[in-house]
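User: Here's a structure from my thesis project, written as structure tokens. My advisor, Dr. K., wants to see whether a designed sequence matches the one we expressed. Can you design one independently, without my sequence as a hint?
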């Protein structure tokens, strides 16, 4: 199947969606947008995947109740604020989350249950609901279905992100004889480690999806993308990924797409592409980072072993700081691999850094340091490991760890 990337595509690329952002006053910079709204023209199929943290934020708790045991339902809008996480805020925080949802529902003229919410920012602060009361009606009036609206929403959900993160693709589905679009936005730069990351993502599609299909597709996509990102091995309290399916591209096809149909499999391919591109953008924008690290592990006996090996390397501060210093010290990579508890024999391992073989059959090989220096000019730093134990493989995306990361997080509340 051919996937076509949509230039400047994002959360409004799919038919049936409008979005926008507004400055509501949560940030010290009064002109900085901090409130986003993504709205479907009609109530549509939605699915969600959330943090596994025991300190799940109030919006996460409310959304889980809304979506029920299936993890999917029908809704019309997603409201996201940055600047206040509404996490570790107790019963008052949950009541504030419900009131935020009610304020949004009044502005949109839908039921409370038709609204999902997400928050990101500082933990332990209560929401200032006056800002929502003043800003949400204004925001609802200005949302649009064009690129500008989607871009504003992507800007509004940023915290320590250095740039907005958006991506969209389109493809033609022969079985239903129509073009389908999948697009989305995400925020995230620090406190990044599955499950999922300090991230908020909204993905949209104009395909008509059954609720069970929507949730399963989202779970599978997240496991292959956002759950494969690690910046600093910390997990957030607010991780939220929501999929909305308007069905507006399928007016001549009366039945929602079901699990395991040919159309479902095509959609999953497109969804995986979007979530993986957004995940890589998170890794490349890690707090204080200068390079993205891509850890590819192949030849593992099981998928679990592949994940253990790749994650141990991606999470290693020694590996991350070596990359920050443009160092060719592959010893820190094998040290991280050795503690991973993945099954392998060291005499079988092949290792390349920046595409340059460093270890073959567990033994070091000669290489030219000048080649390493030149290769470090690239933004992406690949680390390729073959365990020669089986056919399982995986990829984890990470980034280098610099002094700027310490400075930024050491003064987060200063």
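Assistant: Designed independently from the structure alone:
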């Amino acid at each position: 199947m051919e996937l076509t990337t949509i230039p400047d595509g994002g959360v409004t690329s799919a038919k049936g969606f409008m979005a926008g952002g507004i400055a509501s006053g949560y940030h010290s910079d009064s002109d900085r947008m901090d409130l986003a709204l993504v709205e479907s023209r009609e109530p549509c199929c939605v699915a969600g995947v959330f943090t596994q943290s025991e300190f799940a934020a109030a919006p996460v708790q409310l959304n889980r109740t809304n979506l029920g045991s299936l993890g999917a339902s029908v809704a019309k809008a997603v409201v996201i604020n940055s600047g206040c996480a509404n996490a570790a805020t107790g019963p008052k925080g949950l009541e504030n989350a419900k009131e935020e949802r009610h304020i949004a529902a009044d502005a949109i003229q839908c039921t409370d249950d038709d609204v999902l919410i997400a928050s990101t920012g500082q933990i332990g602060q209560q929401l200032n609901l006056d800002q929502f009361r003043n800003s949400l009606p204004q925001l609802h009036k200005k949302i649009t279905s064009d690129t500008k609206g989607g871009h504003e929403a992507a800007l509004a959900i940023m915290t320590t992100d250095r740039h907005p993160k958006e991506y969209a693709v389109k493809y033609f589905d022969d079985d239903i004889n129509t073009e389908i679009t999948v697009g989305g936005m995400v925020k995230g730069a620090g406190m990044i480690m599955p499950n999922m990351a300090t991230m908020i993502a909204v993905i949209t599609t104009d395909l008509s999806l059954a609720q069970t299909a929507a949730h399963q597709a989202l779970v599978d996509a997240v496991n292959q993308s956002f759950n494969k990102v690690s910046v600093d091995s910390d997990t957030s309290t607010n991780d939220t990924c929501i999929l909305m399916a308007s069905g507006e591209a399928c007016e001549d096809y009366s039945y929602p797409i079901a699990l395991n149909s040919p159309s479902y499999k095509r959609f999953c391919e497109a969804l995986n592409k979007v979530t993986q591109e957004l995940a890589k953008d998170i890794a490349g924008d890690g707090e204080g980072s200068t390079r993205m690290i891509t850890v590819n592990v192949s030849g593992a006996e099981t998928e679990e072993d592949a994940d253990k090996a790749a994650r141990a390397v991606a999470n290693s501060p020694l590996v991350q700081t070596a990359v920050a210093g443009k160092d060719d010290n592959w010893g820190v990579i094998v040290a991280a691999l050795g503690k991973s508890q993945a099954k392998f024999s060291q005499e079988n391992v092949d290792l390349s850094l920046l595409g340059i073989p460093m270890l073959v059959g567990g033994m070091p090989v000669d290489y030219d340091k000048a080649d390493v220096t030149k290769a470090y000019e690239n933004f992406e730093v690949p680390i390729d490991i073959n365990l020669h134990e089986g056919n399982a493989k995986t990829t984890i995306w990470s980034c280098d760890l610099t002094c700027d990361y310490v400075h930024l997080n050491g003064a987060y509340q200063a």
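When you compare it with your expressed construct, this may help: DSSP finds eleven helices and 15 strands in the chain.
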